[in-house]
Design a protein that fits this description.
alpha/beta, two-stranded antiparallel sheet, about 25% helix, binds NADP nicotinamide-adenine-dinucleotide phosphate
Length: about 200
């Protein structure tokens, strides 16, 4: 059955799958950030949903604007119930299930649903039946990190797919020359189902 909500995860990780340090991105990659803003931007007249965890939301304003532009923002948190009233287009959901129900009831339906992290929320969404794709930027460097992409992501269980909106091949960042490559993954459905039957 076709799922009505499709979660597209977008993340950048270093060679050790590190994604964060002290609740911030450990790097400044101008070209990668431009790609991130471009791909998460809906077409004219459409709106996306973005989903973030409470910890990522706390520091999101230092990386991008809050609310994230062009999107209905959903913050996942058990401890927070609302966001300050001066932050528009943002709701708090106490679970991913509540977030999915909220999205299903949106009128009009969003163009895409992007999951912006962090580690705990990536894990919830990777394991969710609503998982669709992972857009993973692999940064060809090692950074000091205290947050890592969830180890539940086993690359052999996924297949790399093409997306014409994603730059192909190794990219070189215009800021400091760091190399990175963007991989788009979907789950190998048949193999996953076969394994479950064993
Ligand atoms: N490189 C990248 O692409 C990227 C992208 C985004 C973030 N990051 C980094 O990732 C790090 C943050 O990740 P994180 O794992 O520490 O935090 P997070 O996933 O952003 O947020 C964790 C919070 O989400 C809420 N939460 C988690 N599971 C939940 C559940 N099942 N139900 C309800 N609420 C739930 C909890 O909030 P409450 O405590 O309020 O209940 C929890 O403290 C930072 O270093 C950030 O810079 C990196």
């Amino acid at each position: 059955m076709e799922k009505s909500v499709k979660l597209d995860l977008i993340a950048a990780a270093d060679r050790n799958m590190g994604i964060g340090q002290k609740n911030m991105l450990p790097w400044k990659l101008t070209s990668e950030f431009k790609y991130f803003l471009k791909i998460t931007k809906p077409p004219q007249g459409q709106r996306n949903v973005i989903i973030v965890g409470h910890r990522t939301w706390e520091t999101m304003g230092e990386v991008a604007t809050r609310p994230f532009p062009g999107a209905m923002n959903i913050v996942i948190s058990r401890s927070m119930t609302t966001v300050p009233s001066d932050i528009s287009d943002t709701v708090v959901c106490s679970s991913l299930d509540n977030a999915i129900n909220f999205i299903k009831n949106l009128q009009p339906q969003p163009y895409r649903v992007w999951v912006l992290g962090g580690a705990q929320i990536y894990k919830l969404c990777l394991l969710s039946p609503y998982f669709h794709r992972l857009y993973l930027t692999r940064i060809n460097r090692v950074h000091h990190c205290d947050a890592f992409f969830p180890e539940e992501f086993k690359v052999e269980e996924y297949v790399r797919v093409q997306d014409p909106d994603v730059p192909q091949g190794m990219q070189t960042d215009e800021f400091d020359g760091t190399q990175f490559e963007i991989y788009v993954y979907e789950r190998r459905i048949q193999e996953h189902l076969a394994k479950k039957k064993l």
